[in-house]
Amino acid sequence: MESGATDQATTNNRAAGATQSGDALSIGILLWPSFPLMSFAGLVESLRHAGDHGDNSSPRYARWDVIGSALATARSSCGVPVSATADYVSPRNFDHLFVIGGLLRDLDTAPKPHSAYITAAYRAGVPVCGVCTGSFVLAGLGLLDGKPVCIHPYHREDFEAAYPGHRFVPNRDFHRAGGVSTALGGVSILPLMRQLITHHLGPDRAAKVEHQMTLPSSDGPVYTATQTDHSSIDDPRIQRALVILDAQSGQPPEIATLARMLGLSERHFLRLFRMHVGCPPKDYIIDTKLRAAVWMLRNTRASITSIAYSTGFSSGANLADLCRRKLASTPGDIRRRAQVGRG
């Protein structure tokens, strides 16, 4: 369940706007006692990777707060505690409010202000999402009346007993209706976050999340680099350097680090590499990444931004620029020609 694609220009405008205006995606989180840590981690890790470029983890485009009283701590079902990072601030500060429920036996033990805060958020027009048994919490507040509900099969019988008359949504990770969402929990939080990030920040940010979190893809076969023939190079140190660069083209080592691995000074390594290969290491790395990207464009249905991140480019725009400069073509043209060739 994903929203429609947005082009690169729109994505860049969204990201730039979030940075310049301070209008980053903002998420509030309410944790119930004995909440599932995996659901919480999936939520915040998605936001962390969407929130900045590279692995800097600064909240430029996305931020979150765990809501609760000062010094309050919620203990997860596995025993790991998480502290509140913000008091019960105005729910209008957030674009979405997530309610992560806990073990059924503990649903009545949450801090009393939690439920009032959810109601206030809903009345203020803030979309509310119940994750795992968070759906029980929303149902208890009447927010799911007349709405289909996405409930994990393990909890369905308990939910029916407590809140009869609801229609269940089968075979889905989450469901959104009338400003309220319900999600199964566990890894099912990830497709919801992908859709939410795509909607607010564009597919470029969502593709970064998929790549950084190594989420499985159904877009087609994964590119596996083939070993390039380096038999014509008679210096074993440069042969080894090429093997390393081929294997790590997505995240190549620093040139100085690679030179030390080979027992060479950086200057000597650069001279030997150019002499044997005919170009500097930087150009070789770019060509290797570009070969992988072209293969994926021809053989998978993955988006251009997903392919860019998968092959080590900084963005879809970066990949498109290199395709134009080195191949006199665009990623879209490369894909279309491959499709025509297959008939």
* CATH topology (level 3) name of the largest domain: Rossmann fold
CATH architecture of the largest domain: 3-Layer(aba) Sandwich
The whole-number mean of residue pLDDT values reads 86
What is the global morphology?
elongated
Relative strand content: 5-15%
What would CATH call the homologous superfamily of the largest domain?
Class I glutamine amidotransferase (GATase) domain
Low-confidence stretches: 1-22, 220-227
Give the SSE order as H and E letters: HEHEEEEHEHHEEHHHHHHHHH
For the sheet with most strands, the description reads: 6 strands, mixed
Keywords: Transcription, Transcription regulation
InterPro entries: Class_I_gatase-like (IPR029062), DJ-1/PfpI (IPR002818), Homeodomain-like_sf (IPR009057), HTH_AraC (IPR018060), INH-QAR (IPR052158)
Protein name: HTH-type transcriptional regulator CdhR
GO molecular function: DNA-binding transcription factor activity; sequence-specific DNA binding
Q: Can you tell me about this structure?
A:
There is one protein chain. The chain is 47% helix and 10% strand. It is of the alpha/beta class and 343 residues long. It has a 6-stranded mixed beta sheet, sandwiched between helices. A two-stranded antiparallel ribbon has the order 3-4. The longest helix has 19 residues, at 281-299. The model is unreliable at 1-22 and 220-227 (pLDDT under 50).
